[in-house]
């Protein structure tokens, strides 16, 4: 049956499902098309983020962090727990239950907000028509005043290491190992590689991370990447930089990985190999030949600052468009587009999208790095405060890392904040809010923070921008 909607969203990841909910909240007749089905043939909502990305990886990171603490960090508190064991299938089952609850939650939100779910593969036809082919091959065509494309991304494969779902896996396989691999190779020292590498290293895998670039986490502020590399090496992650994988050979249950580095040709034998070299926009089958939507040379759908494609009334959001491939970026674009469709003025602060790596300690940052400011010739001041000087961090026995705030030398306006620390992912929100409101470092310095909290490190870093930190001796300038 064909129906007419105000808005049809294609894809129910964090970009698409949020856009659909917002559009329905605004009173627009909304449908969301999703092709993913479970083994039981039920629609799977939530996209990469809820099913094989953000949430399951964090579930495993939390389980393994607890395991590691029980094993190595309890004795200092005087707690002895005897032999600590982990049952990997139970850990993975817990992760799967969280995923199930959340994806069912999205189905509930669709129902509660009146979003029509159209199970099937959506294709944009000319004239803002959407063809939906369901799991049984039945085709229907629906009309919409507006279409939002939100088909997301998939893992990049590289020819030297073809994923086979067994010995060589991508992010999906690495979330579902049934036992801890004795030797684990990871190709790519990016967010996903470091998070998944950390999960299995904590459970006892010998983890080698091969990174083709010579610099570690080159997008991060240089202080963050230096500190992170030091900490991760101490934790036992064997990160090899400038290591370019040239081939793999599978021998029974083992994989031999060949790579070149500054010393020439090298090889490494592992039990499992995770390929985590990045993600690419996924638009296969999304657009009919005459749909009119333009895709750029890197495969992203071309959009303006407000996610408008080249076709009036057709928008694209999330991982299929420019900008960081992050769930919160996708969701905020979804909200913005729904608001624009409803006729509201809406825009997003693309310069203030926070990034996080959920290792322990976490790495989080927003705004400009020192390298960027130097390259742009901007004069700046830096305030830094180590968690080793924070009473709360000491009480929690979690003192690695620091907060670093960078402010404009002339105006004191905050230009960037970079954190390595146990709660960096949550602390960075303070800097994002401050920067959204155009705060100066002094604004934060004059704000009252509860004591004792790790947030006080943000306060102290802001004070340190003008050499007024209280709980460290300030550098003479
Ligand atoms: C291991 C891992 C960890 C991550 N951790 C984080 C994190 O901690 N924080 C963070 O912000 N981001 C994280 N990400 C990235 C995050 O998952 C993505 O940025 C986010 O999911 C993108 O949302 P999206 O809505 O654009 O696309 P997706 O989540 O990819 O959803 C797209 C949906 O569209 C559906 N679809 C595609 N084509 C069609 C079609 N033609 N018809 C119907 N349906 C279609 C797909 O089935 C899918 O459900 C992680 C990713 C991975 C892989």
From TrEMBL:
Cellular localisation: Cytoplasm
Enzyme Commission number, as recorded: 1.8.1.4
Reactions it catalyzes: N(6)-[(R)-dihydrolipoyl]-L-lysyl-[protein] + NAD(+) = N(6)-[(R)-lipoyl]-L-lysyl-[protein] + NADH + H(+)
Keywords for the protein's UniProt record, in alphabetical order: Cytoplasm, Disulfide bond, FAD, Flavoprotein, NAD, Oxidoreductase, Redox-active center
Keyword set includes Disulfide bond: yes
Pyridine nucleotide-disulphide oxidoreductase dimerisation domain mapped to chain residues: 353-462
Textual note on the cofactor: Binds 1 FAD per subunit.
Family, as annotated: Belongs to the class-I pyridine nucleotide-disulfide oxidoreductase family.
Name of the featured protein: Dihydrolipoyl dehydrogenase
Organism per entry: Balneatrix alpica
């Amino acid at each position: 049956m064909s129906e007419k909607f105000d808005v049809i969203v294609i894809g129910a990841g964090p970009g698409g499902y949020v856009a659909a909910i917002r559009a329905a909240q605004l009173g627009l007749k909304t449908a969301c098309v999703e092709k993913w089905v479970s083994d039981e043939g039920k629609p799977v909502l939530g996209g990469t983020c809820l099913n094989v990305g953000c949430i399951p990886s964090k579930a495993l990171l939390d389980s393994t962090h607890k395991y590691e603490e029980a094993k190595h960090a309890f004795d200092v508190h005087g707690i002895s727990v005897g032999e600590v064991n982990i049952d990997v299938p139970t850990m993975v089952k817990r992760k799967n239950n969280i995923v199930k609850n959340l994806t069912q939650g999205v189905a509930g939100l669709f129902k509660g907000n009146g979003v029509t779910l159209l199970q099937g593969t959506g294709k944009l036809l000319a004239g803002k028509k959407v063809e939906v082919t369901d799991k049984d091959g039945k085709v229907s065509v629906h009309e919409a005043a507006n279409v939002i494309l939100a088909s997301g991304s998939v893992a990049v494969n590289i020819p030297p290491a073809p994923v086979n779902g067994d010995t060589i896996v991508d992010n999906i396989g690495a979330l579902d190992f049934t036992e801890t691999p004795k030797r684990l190779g990871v190709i790519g020292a990016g967010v996903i590689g470091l998070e998944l590498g950390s999960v299995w290293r904590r459970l006892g895998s010998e983890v080698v991370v091969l990174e083709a670039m010579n610099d570690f986490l080159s997008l991060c502020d240089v202080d963050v990447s230096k500190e992170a590399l030091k900490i991760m090496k101490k934790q036992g992650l064997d990160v090899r930089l400038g290591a370019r994988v040239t081939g793999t050979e599978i021998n029974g249950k083992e994989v031999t990985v060949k790579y070149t580095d500054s010393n020439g040709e090298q090889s490494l034998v592992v039990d499992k190999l995770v390929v985590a070299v990045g993600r690419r926009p996924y638009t296969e089958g999304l657009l009919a030949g005459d749909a009119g939507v333009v895709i750029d040379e890197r495969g992203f759908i071309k959009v303006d600052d407000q996610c408008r494609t080249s076709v009036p009334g057709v928008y694209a959001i999330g991982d299929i468009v420019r900008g960081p491939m992050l769930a919160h970026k996708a969701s905020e674009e979804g909200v913005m587009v729904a608001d624009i469709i409803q006729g509201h003025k809406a825009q997003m602060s693309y310069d203030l999208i926070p990034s996080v790596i959920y290792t322990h300690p976490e790495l989080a940052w927003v705004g400009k790095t020192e390298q960027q400011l130097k390259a742009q010739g901007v004069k700046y001041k830096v305030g830094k405060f180590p968690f080793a000087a924070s009473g709360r961090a000491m009480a929690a026995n979690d003192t690695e890392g620091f907060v670093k705030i960078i402010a404009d030398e002339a105006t004191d306006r905050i230009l960037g904040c970079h954190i390595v620390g146990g709660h960096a992912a949550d602390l960075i929100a303070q800097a994002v809010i401050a920067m959204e409101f155009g705060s100066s470092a002094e604004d934060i310095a004059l704000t009252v923070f509860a004591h004792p909290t790790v947030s006080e490190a943000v306060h102290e870093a802001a004070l340190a921008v003008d050499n007024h930190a209280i709980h460290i001796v300030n550098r003479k300038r």
